[in-house]
């Protein structure tokens, strides 16, 4: 009498085992990509280069460089706006590279893992 449930030999069927191997390989590749992102730096400018911001691949602001002429005590708001614009652009570059890397793993299907990078 045949056993009910389970698979012959008690193991996973071939397709399931292959799927698990592929998932493990993808996980290793994603971990490698995350480590690689930690070492990258992304820079962006605003105000025609008057403000330059550098962020890491983990979205930490590393450096802010200001030209002297953009530092006007009577117009601090403009300087603040330029810094915000440069930071947002640099963060966008990080997101773009992360999304591009994730699309390699998801085959362009989207729905990656939010917060991974």
Which class best fits the helix and strand makeup?
alpha+beta
Order of helices and strands: HEEEH
Major beta-sheet overview: 3 strands, antiparallel
| Average predicted local confidence, pLDDT | 83
Annotation field: number of helices? 2
By CATH's scheme, which homologous superfamily of the domain at 39-107 applies?
Nucleoid-associated protein YbaB-like domain
Q: Kindly identify the CATH topology of the domain at 39-107.
A: Ybab, Chain: A
End-to-end separation: 52 Å
CATH architecture classification of the domain at 39-107: 2-Layer Sandwich
Query: Can you tell me the residue ranges where pLDDT is under 50 for at least 5 consecutive residues?
Result: none
What's the CATH first level of the domain at 39-107?
Answer: Alpha Beta
Q: Which percent bin holds the helix content?
A: 40-55%
Structural shape: rod-shaped
How many strands appear in the DSSP assignment?
A: 3
- Quote the beta fraction: 15-25%
**Adjacency order of strands in the biggest sheet:** 1-2-3
Quaternary structure classification: single chain
């Amino acid at each position: 009498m045949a056993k009910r449930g389970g698979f012959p030999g008690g193991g996973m069927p071939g397709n399931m085992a292959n799927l698990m191997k592929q998932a493990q390989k993808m996980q290793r590749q994603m971990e490698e990509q995350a480590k690689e992102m930690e070492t990258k730096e992304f820079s962006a400018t605003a105000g025609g280069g008057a403000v330059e911001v550098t962020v890491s691949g983990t979205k930490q602001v590393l450096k802010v460089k200001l030209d002297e002429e953009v530092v006007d005590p009577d117009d601090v708001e403009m300087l603040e706006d330029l810094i915000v614009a440069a930071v947002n652009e640099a963060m966008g570059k990080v997101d773009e590279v992360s999304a591009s890397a994730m699309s390699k793993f998801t085959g362009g299907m989207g729905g990656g893992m939010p917060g991974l990078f």
